[in-house]
Amino acid sequence: MTSLSTNRPPRVTIREVAHRAGVGIKTVSRVVNNEPNVAPATAARVRAAIDELKWEPDAHASNLRRTTTRTKSVGLLLGSVANPFSATIHRAIEDIAIHRDVAVFASSLDDEPEREIAAVEAFVRRKVDGLILTCAAHSQAYLTELVPPEMPVVFIDREPADFAADTVHSDNVGGAELATRHLLGFGHRRLALLIDRREIWTARERERGFLAALAEFGVSADTATIVADLSDQDAAERAVTTLLSVPDAPTAIVSGQNLITVGAVHALRRLGRHHDVALVGFDDVELADLLEPGLTVVAQRPQEMGRVAADRLFASLDTGHRLPPAAKVIPVDLIPRGSGEIRP
Amino acid sequence: MTSLSTNRPPRVTIREVAHRAGVGIKTVSRVVNNEPNVAPATAARVRAAIDELKWEPDAHASNLRRTTTRTKSVGLLLGSVANPFSATIHRAIEDIAIHRDVAVFASSLDDEPEREIAAVEAFVRRKVDGLILTCAAHSQAYLTELVPPEMPVVFIDREPADFAADTVHSDNVGGAELATRHLLGFGHRRLALLIDRREIWTARERERGFLAALAEFGVSADTATIVADLSDQDAAERAVTTLLSVPDAPTAIVSGQNLITVGAVHALRRLGRHHDVALVGFDDVELADLLEPGLTVVAQRPQEMGRVAADRLFASLDTGHRLPPAAKVIPVDLIPRGSGEIRP
DNA sequence: TTGAAAGCGATACCAA
DNA sequence: TTGGTATCGCTTTCAA
């Protein structure tokens, strides 16, 4: 083998454009970067030359010398891109980003703390302009040294610890209260709560709301069963099966998350108890209205969450630095469809 | 405001590392790029200097001069990141990419041709290493001039036109045949097919399969109703309502896509015909097994599709050039759950 | 309003 | 096995 032919395609450079337009390269640079002090006629000639030559500025070359470099990309950390809740957030963010010609990197964490850090590292290394993250780790202190001080960060769905930044999340306490109060209002006194691992902030918040509603109705927490550590559908299904097999079993269930809800519905159906045990799920699921009975849920607004988070991120990006951290709480909506209106 | 302070952090450069290690910069370059011809002792000294100075090579500077530049990112074009089918593909690809430290950009096209081209442009401009795309445009000829000749491209879910590259898709014709044959086997003779716009390749393929099965059973295509241009749930719901309002209405429905299936189920329920009109959907949907009757579907294997597509992309990337285009057809699975086993 | 010259931080080539 | 030097394509600086 002799000619290892670099085969580099004959790139069009700024120099050729400048020559074609009969100006200096600095003037071409001014035009493409919308800098002031270019005569309209000159700018027009330059633009014509750019079009004729089909020149595209080389991003690497620009960013090399530039002080404030933008990759026009953002990093998004989610539970899983395959989870409908996360996917809806993702789409909402993409819809805002695309208007600004910003591309979105997404990464699935599966609630594993190490993956959160690895993903942040990976995105920072790729020099994303900003980060939107659903945190999985116990503390976000690591962000202080990992993320450049001017890079905007927005937390979505969960509040961070040891790191101050914008946060957007559902009214978890209020939503769980609403669900629980709804069941209590229908006469239930033996309730169960099914939640994910307590390391997860939303699980803790929803538990707080559940307990607050019980207290409000003067129902002792001792009469309630709380099953935690339910991180997938199968675990939830097994938990409900066990739950209902004991004497004085709960007559109503609050599910703390969409996967748990689906698992619970499966269990109730298999046991033939779906017309008998009340169920309210946190977060809506597809086809919930077509089940028999319809599935009552406290619906979140993932699209709104994504939109608000993206707006906030771009606001920081526009001002050129992080805005003072603010927290935005998104309301939830109780949707009665049948399963939550069953009496004990 | 006075000091617009560039605030550029004092960057560590390769020069300082070379000085510290007592070598030339080219030797440092050799070490970080694992090039041959470096004495082990020298390499060790260089590595020590890199660690001490915490030097990280500047990606922009490297990529500027480098001929074969890798950003360790790939672009993924999907129907919508919020559609469960697309989202599952996305996740499968991410799971493979992450092992190679490759990040994934995703873009939702909503089946709009212009967005396909815009998304490809956006990704090429960001110098992704490869592209996986569900095409929405009529022709992919544009890729020839838009995409660098060595950049690997894999089509997923749909076959491209006017551009040869790897393709991964379901057995659409076979799947539609399977669904239709299933209904014909239960005695149905007046069938309806609900599909998306015929510009979409999968819609055309599934129509072919539907017609083939009819022919196989000696049923004239004239007795069948084909409703096309159904691109969302509402349209499907309306179509089914209209469909069943005429005399000699179809007794069985084949739905060509997940959104259409959900719309059809809604219509049947609203009309109270769900125990009466048979339905087989293409592509599985969440909770399908808990409906009454259960929803019979021809399930696709989105996870397998994503995995195969990603494997193929990385195989091309590993060899350093596009592999000869190959087509991989992924099997589908008929899952009988009740709605497809209703007799006329 | 304009442009010439001096980098930016790495890689490529070639001589030592 | 090494390292000097010429780039890479653009932004910055500064003088015209």
Automatic annotation (TrEMBL), chains A, B:
Entry-linked CDD domains: HTH_LacI, PBP1_LacI_sugar_binding-like
> Which GO terms of the molecular function aspect are on file?
DNA binding
Q: Gene3D superfamilies of this UniProt entry?
A: 3.40.50.2300, lambda repressor-like DNA-binding domains (1.10.260.40)
UniProt keyword terms in alphabetical order: DNA-binding, Transcription, Transcription regulation
- List the InterPro entries: HTH_LacI, Lambda_DNA-bd_dom_sf, Peripla_BP/Lac1_sug-bd_dom, Peripla_BP_I
Residues covered by the HTH lacI-type domain: 12-66
Q: Which PROSITE patterns match?
A: HTH_LACI_1, HTH_LACI_2
Q: What is this protein called?
A: LacI family DNA-binding transcriptional regulator
Q: Which organism is it from?
A: Microbacterium candidum
